[in-house]
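Annex B, item 7. Sequence and structure tokens for protein A, then protein B.
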Amino acid sequence: MEIFKNLTVLSLEQATVLPYLTYRLAHDGIRIIRLEHPIYGDPNRLVGHNVVGEERMNAYYLCINACKKALTLNLAVPEGQDILKALIKELNVDVFATNQLPRNYKKLGIDYDTLKAVKPDIIWFGATGFGPDSNEPAYDPILQARSGLMEVTGEKEGDPMVLGIPLPDMGTSEHGYGLIMKALYKRAVSGEGSCIHMSMFESSLSWMTVPFTLTSLGRTISRRGNTHEFFAPLSVYKTSDGYVYVAVGNDRQWKSMVSQEIFKSIDKPEYETNKGRIEDVKNLNQAIVAITQNHTSKELIDLFNSITVPISKINTVPEVMEEPLAKKVLLSSEDPISGAKIVMPPSPNMTPFLEEMGRKLPFPPRFGEHNNEVYGQVLGYSEEEINRMKEEKII
């Protein structure tokens, strides 16, 4: 929608939680300008293999930074803070975002009160590990450990395990996305800006719905591997050429399953109800594997689909990317300099902006790539002034 193309987000960002949030906002067509320190920059730029043969353009950084512009700015010096204020005014910044520790807000001149004085209706967003009153550093696995997500992940008799994706990072980004959209609506209605503090810990807690409530009712909740606490059979089953996940969610689906010739041996009275199957889930799953390992994944998928019982092959990442449904929505980006190409997953819905772009996004920006454009054309600094600021490490 054209309305989003008129919005600008200025983001002092690094790592994952905030870059993923602004990447999501970029999918709506919002102009995203990322700020980085002129010496240190975003550490994620140095992680992963070197894709384009240049410094600070490594693979891990490329994942969530397409469709943005990049500036460098040293906010630890007064001139840098003056430039920040000029950027907010001249770019007409709608949202300022940061994932700095709270103790740095006033020191860098990025606290809400300071920026509100520059632009009264600004929406200020701060992502932290444990809220604005804590300066405890936090990375995604720390949040997984602290929030209980790690306790409920892994094999029943095994060690706690991290999730396969950084849910505290990306979950916080998704929650932040919603809060920013609410703040934009509030501003459209009332003309007022907002100050939003988003805690990764609170975001992580929000996913613990069943574990918290059942614990309060006296149940012991911990990791259970691939099975389900209340339904059976739901698990991973080995096939002759891979693995499938089968999810039998009710007694009718179970009856449909055991009505098939290959499963008749487990059509027992004690398994007629979900309660009976749960009580003997270990033996039940062993019996199912003894059957499924003699059949290909495709044979089992065709069979279960014919009786409307949920099943899926457990795809590798390359196989997922080749799925017809995935290929219809995957995004791509090509570096105009090196010719390197990357593929990225879409937002949860295909936005008008992504459709308009043909699902092809501008390549993730190089370190300080847009300094001359923004500082020169927007703020009006001469080439000599820009060179001076570079030499003095202001930009």
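Protein B:
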Amino acid sequence: MIARHLEATLRAAAKRSPVVTVTGPRQSGKTTLVRSLFAKRAYVSLENPDDRDFALEDPRGFLNQFREGVILDEVQRAPDLLSYIQGIVDDEGRPGQFILTGSQNFLLLQRVSQSLAGRTSVCHLLPFSHAELVGRKPMPLTHVGRKVPRRPPRPDSLFDVLFTGSYPRIHDKALDPQDWLGNYYQTYIERDVRSIVNIGDVDAFGRFVRLCAGRSGQLLNLSSVGADCGVSHATARRWLSVLEASFLVYLLRPHYRNFSKRLVKSPKLYFIDTGLLCYLLRIRSADELVTHSSRGAVFETFVLSELVKTYLNRGLEADVHFWRDSAGHEVDLLIDHGGELIPVEVKSGETVARDFFKGLEYWRSLPGQKGCPAALVFGGKASATRRGIAVYSWHDWL
């Protein structure tokens, strides 16, 4: 089994909170992780009709079976259990008594916040990070822009990595990514979407998802997306919230600090998994991706996704933004360390060109930013420090 970087965060959470809630997209490895990490606890999947019926009809009797603790998988299938769990942990309060997992972030966290506020630690598990797949420790976030790792070169192909994506089952079973992702997507549309929100026109929703894929890495214009698939702005906003709650997309917010320029305030839209993004863009092979018009957007999706995973695996909220002013100056990513902002530029080219540094150099010319740490992530193989900027190969990125 491939070690997950969330393990240490989960262990710590189980020592301090009576309930630990693990959310994430379907097939991200939640069940495998919690069962291996908490192997001595009883395990119940509420996808099983018999167990679910028992939990719904007699919640007290169901929970009384597990006084020594239990893993409840897909707990959103029996949401009323959370109120009864609240009563138990208020009486006993033993750390790590209940380990809950769920794939529907919106529905699950809504109920968790109502019933278990102050009693649970919430952790998010996304598909594999690249560091997990190659079996190395992630780079500390505080090193970004300051230190360049010295790692031996690997034979991995960037475009194979982007095309395959990072869902565990594809890697565990060596499956064809397009076949598996096609089935995954259809299951998501037919099952999860209908259970989260009433989608009247499934075909229109499918068009909406593909239109969003075509805009990955771009400023979000919901009115335009809605008009292109024939739905209202309100419907488009509701559908986007479904994608975000299902961990399929991530909205990167702009940084609002005022540098005497008017900042663009629309978020940028990204998909979490590059393999799913390639499937939705109808990219059929890694070789096709090399020359595809969306190559840069797919690579930028990978860089952001790795950064978000690094934050979440540490139990932290991803404090990442982008910056663009009214004159068109732009920085792809800004990592906010509180008193310090680290700019990161993303380029899919395999050779570092002079103009790759343009946005970073402009940022460093702003008041208070002179000489600040900065990073460039590119599609080549050799990491280095150039012009006082940490240049990371895609393979060395986190």
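Comment on protein B: The chain has a mean pLDDT of 90.
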